[in-house]
């Protein structure tokens, strides 16, 4: 289908069967491999944007006559891929022991409270004898906020720090002290000044931070590279075209980074915090 990426895992050893998943091309996603042949499952990780967490999509088909060994293999696979990820698991599990007559409403109520909402059951796709389930994935799951604190040098009062250090009569207090004693006193006074001049803040995840040299032109180039990659997978572009584009984008990134580092020393004269903003 146009505008979608297809992920599929066909049944081995016979015609027909298997699982498949279509994901819109606007989403950055990757398929998780290393499958167990006993389990008919497909796992795709959708990367979250900004501070949103990644979401794991799973599609599974469980035959009605599946044995306990295959069930245990599925549980093991599910535990391995779903660690620290929000999980949306879909498929046909063929569980005859579930009493859907009395538990369906409760199941859908619990399903709609968290990651998934707007659940609608009904209708069939094509000639299939299975009912469809439509739902929306609520992308409000956020990455865990770090409780680790660090010094926020970009908000530091360096003038205050210098003033506090200059107030100490160093020649008088250090005179007559041994090297180790003098160092301990010096360290104590500097840390005391640092505590007053440099605020503490929570350490943020640098994963989503954009490099300072990555301008709008380079971002458009990266978008074009991903687009050509999709064309290559669909056999609408050649591998040589994709490789040449990757090489040119890599060279442009290197030049942009080198130019930024070349201009950094002169820029620091006008803005002393520019180095901290860059790195």
UniProtKB/TrEMBL annotation:
Family annotation (InterPro entries): Endo/exonu/phosph_ase_sf
Regions crossing the membrane: none
GO biological process, one term: cell adhesion involved in heart morphogenesis
GO cellular component terms listed in the entry, alphabetical order: extracellular matrix
Name recorded for this polypeptide: Endonuclease/exonuclease/phosphatase domain-containing protein
Source organism: Mycteria americana
């Amino acid at each position: 289908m146009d505008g979608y990426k297809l992920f599929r895992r066909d049944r081995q050893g016979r015609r027909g069967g298997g699982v498949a998943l279509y994901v819109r091309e606007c989403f950055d996603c990757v398929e998780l491999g290393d499958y167990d042949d006993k389990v008919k499952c497909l796992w795709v990780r959708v990367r979250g944007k900004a501070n949103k967490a990644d979401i794991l999509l799973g599609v599974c088909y469980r035959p009605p006559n599946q044995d306990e060994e295959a069930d245990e293999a599925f549980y093991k696979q599910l535990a391995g891929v779903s660690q620290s990820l929000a999980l949306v698991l879909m498929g046909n599990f063929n569980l005859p022991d579930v009493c859907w007559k009395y538990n369906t409403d409760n199941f859908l109520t619990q399903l709609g409270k968290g990651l998934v909402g707007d659940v609608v059951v009904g209708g069939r796709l094509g000639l299939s004898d299975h009912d469809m389930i439509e739902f929306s994935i609520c992308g409000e799951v956020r990455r865990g906020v770090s409780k680790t604190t660090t010094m926020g040098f970009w908000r530091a009062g360096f003038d205050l720090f210098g003033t506090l250090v200059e107030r100490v009569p160093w020649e008088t207090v250090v005179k007559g002290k041994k090297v180790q004693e003098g160092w301990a006193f010096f360290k104590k006074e500097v840390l005391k000044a640092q505590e007053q001049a440099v605020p503490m803040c929570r350490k943020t995840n640098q994963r989503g931070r954009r490099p300072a040299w990555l301008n709008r032109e380079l971002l458009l180039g990266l978008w074009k590279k991903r687009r050509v990659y999709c064309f290559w997978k669909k056999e609408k572009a050649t591998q040589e075209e994709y490789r040449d584009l990757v090489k040119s984008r890599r060279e442009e990134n290197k030049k942009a980074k080198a130019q930024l580092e070349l201009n950094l020393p002169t820029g620091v004269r006008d803005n002393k915090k520019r180095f901290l903003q860059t790195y």
